[in-house]
Amino acid sequence: MDWIQQIVNGISLGSIYALIALGYTMVYGIIKLINFAHGDVFMVGAFVGFYAIESWKLSFIPALLVAMGISAVLGVVIERVAYKRLRNATRIAALITAIGVSLFIEYGTIYIRGAQPEAFPSVLPDQIFKVFGASISSQSIFILLISIILMLILQFIVHRTKIGKAMRAVSYDAEAARLMGINVDRTISATFAIGSALAGAAGVAFGVYYTKIEPLMGVIPGLKAFVAAVLGGIGIIPGAMIGGLVLGIVETMVSAFGYSPWRDAAAFVILILILIFRPSGILGKNTREKV
């Protein structure tokens, strides 16, 4: 087994999980909602990228930007239509709504285009590089670079821009932020837009990496990205990145050791262990909650 090759493959897969997990953790950090429809935004992004390349004849980067834009709009629509009225409702009501939105997007997609899978077109050069005896594909490297660039842009937005400061203020205390003149509704919508755009980018990267997309493809990656967010510390942006990368490497190693049927189970074993031994995640801090 070539360790370098497996680690690079794991990091490439983990970077896709990290992009999806960032949407979970951003939304949770702002309004304490687990948006289970997020995995389906990832699926929509993959199909938008597919049609942009196949029908509109766009290259990879323009297709990626189109997928991110439409996914961002979809995220804002979901927030305005489904979640905005439930901000003061119980968490179980918001959770049930999120599951309902997820099913609506999945089966709405099946109704519109059918359930058949599509083969994602090859748009990136697939060269093989030899590094210390390991065979590393140029696609894996390119996907990793795209993911790193998007994560750095997100960090810049959150820490260096006006909307990023507003997001941090709302996540800390929404009522105090409102009193200070911050438009909370607009900030929450911006959070959904940014998180959904990253999910759309992850969908295109996933299509290029695995070459097959279908309407229910967001279920398992969405759940794994949720595991990654919890692993790193839900609500903490660097934690989502770390959690995604760790999960990707673990899955790849499980497959490399010959236990491929268990690679999906490994993610949920990690979730159980993290909830038992460190519920706050790798970067989280234990805080008391009044009830």
Kindly summarize this structure in a few lines:
The protein has 291 residues and is mainly alpha-helical. The protein has helices at 3-31, 38-54, 60-83, 91-113, 138-160, 162-172, 174-179, 184-210, 219-232, 237-256, 263-277, and strands at 118-119, 128-131, 134-137, 212-213.
Please describe the topology of this protein:
Blueprint: H1 3-31, H2 38-54, H3 60-83, H4 91-113, E1 118-119, E2 128-131, E3 134-137, H5 138-160, H6 162-172, H7 174-179, H8 184-210, E4 212-213, H9 219-232, H10 237-256, H11 263-277
Antiparallel strand pairs: 1-4, 2-3
InterPro entries: ABC_BtuC-like (IPR037294), ABC_transp_permease (IPR001851), BCAA_transport_permease (IPR052157)
Keywords: Amino-acid transport, Cell inner membrane, Cell membrane, Membrane, Transmembrane, Transmembrane helix, Transport
Membrane topology: Multi-pass membrane protein
Q: Low-confidence spans: pLDDT under 50, at least 5 residues?
A: none
Distance between the termini: 51 Å
The total beta strand count reads: 4
Order of helices and strands: HHHHEEEHHHHEHHH
Approximately what portion of the residues adopt beta-strand conformation?
under 5%
Number of helices: 11
Q: Tell me about the biggest sheet?
A: 2 strands, antiparallel
CATH topology: ABC transporter involved in vitamin B12 uptake, BtuC
Q: What general form does the structure show?
A: globular
Main location: membrane
Family: Belongs to the binding-protein-dependent transport system permease family. LivHM subfamily.
InterPro entries: ABC_BtuC-like, ABC_transp_permease, BCAA_transport_permease
Protein name: Branched-chain amino acid ABC transporter permease
